[in-house]
Design goal:
It catalyses: Endohydrolysis of (1->4)-beta-D-xylosidic linkages in xylans. This is Beta-xylanase. With 349 residues, the protein is α/β, with parallel strands linked by helices. The chain has a single domain (36-348), classed as Alpha-Beta Barrel (TIM Barrel), CATH 3.20.20. The protein is 45% helix and 16% strand. It contains 15 helices and 10 strands. Helix 8 (133-150) runs parallel beside helix 10 and helix 13 (280-299) packs parallel to helix 15. Bound molecules: (3S,4R)-3-hydroxy-2-oxopiperidin-4-yl beta-D-xylopyranoside. (3S,4R)-3-hydroxy-2-oxopiperidin-4-yl beta-D-xylopyranoside (XIL) is lined by residues 54, 77-78, 162, 238, 269, 317.
């Protein structure tokens, strides 16, 4: 083709494209493509977006479908707790945790281990008798190391000690604290590290989203432990929020001070409950809070990800534990996304 004809064709083509080419947005709408998930959106920020799940729910196929698709991180809600994993002294049962790890693997999701040392959901054999310090030390070390070894390479993080402090920042008087003293926390971390030197080790608690006496206690302890070379890698903020208590406006500052200690942070058990019935206004506030906490995590470099404490109101723990409250999660009881879901997407976009 002669040069000027070529140029003409070029110009015509450009004009045609200008007239008919859909906008980038239009293109995205028309091209058959997989809609982006919360996980996809979070990954663009180098974060994960996860959900807790629990073994009894895994027979619910529509539930499982969303769980496998929308999230890139899973936490077992109960299956890795002491009562489930060591129901008799020295007899270990990892079947429930394994079921969830297998499901997560099938969907390329990573798993947070939850939890090794906690005053709640302990087996009867442990709570129904007295222990001397040397006895309990042995029991604790064996429990931690057997479980951490079992899940080595399968979980990327452990909530090693859960809920160690009271609201006023004093140590919670658990069987571990009362028998072993505050050093049980450092010991637990060291034992876990010995059993899996690569896994990230966290302390995890609720009501530590704001700067205040309880989060100060973690800050102080974390600083001490780091100075002593104890293997602590992160602080988990459960973030079980409730509309009636107000949004924790110092969350971002709080995350940042742990970041400055060189620690990872994670929002590990997020839900935002309200008195039921829900209404449009409450759901709008809830959506705003979900967006705000998502943005707070994105704003702090070492906030590694967000986990909601299951994703649907169908399986939320809230109604059974908080009288008259519920509707805490981004999907409703019929597995339909609520305003909170869209608000999270927007915050991640
Ligand atoms: C809850 C589970 O979701 C319930 O199914 C169970 O009956 C009680 O525990 N903080 C934690 C979680 O660290 O382990 C708790 O999970 C919720 C509060």
């Amino acid at each position: 083709m002669p040069k000027n004809r070529l140029r003409l064709v070029g110009a015509l083509t450009a004009a045609l494209v200008a007239v008919t080419a859909p906008s980038a947005q239009g293109l995205a709408e028309h091209r058959p493509h997989k809609p982006q998930t919360l996980a996809d959106l979070a990954q663009r920020h180098g974060r994960y977006f996860g959900s807790a799940t629990d073994n009894p729910e895994l027979v619910d196929e529509p539930y499982k479908k969303i769980l496998g698709k929308e999230f890139d991180q899973i936490t077992p809600g109960n299956g890795m707790k002491w009562y489930a994993t060591e129901p008799e002294q020295g007899v270990f049962d990892f079947s429930q945790g394994d079921e969830i790890v297998d499901l997560a693997r099938a969907h390329h999701q990573k798993v947070r281990g939850h939890t090794l040392v906690w005053h709640s959901q302990l087996p009867d054999w442990l709570t129904s008798r007295e222990w001397t310090a040397p006895e309990l030390r042995k029991v604790l070390k064996k429990h931690i190391q057997t479980e951490v070894r079992h899940y080595r390479g399968k979980v990327f993080a452990w909530d090693v000690v859960n809920e160690a402090f009271n609201e006023d920042g004093t140590y919670r008087e658990t069987v571990f604290y009362n028998t072993l003293g505050p050093g049980y926390i450092a010991d637990a971390l060291r034992w876990a590290h010995e059993a899996d030197p690569r896994v990230k080790l966290y302390l995890n608690d609720y009501n530590i989203e704001s700067v205040g006496p309880k989060s100060d206690a973690y800050y102080k302890l974390a600083k001490q432990l780091r100075a002593q070379g104890v293997p602590l890698h992160g602080i988990g903020l459960q973030a079980h929020l409730a509309l009636q208590y107000g949004y924790p406006t110092t969350l971002e500052d709080n995350l940042r001070r742990f970041d400055r200690l060189g620690l990872d942070t994670a929002l590990t058990e997020v839900d935002i409950r309200m008195y039921v019935p829900a209404d449009e206004e409450k759901l709008a506030t809830q959506a705003q809070w979900y967006a705000d906490l998502t943005k707070a995590c994105l704003a702090v470099r070492r906030c590694v990800g967000i986990t909601i404490w299951d994703y649907t109101d169908k399986y939320s723990w809230i109604p059974a534990f908080f009288d008259g409250e519920g509707a805490a999660l981004p999907w409703d009881e019929e597995l339909r996304p609520k305003p909170a879901y869209y608000a999270i997407r927007k915050a991640l976009s």
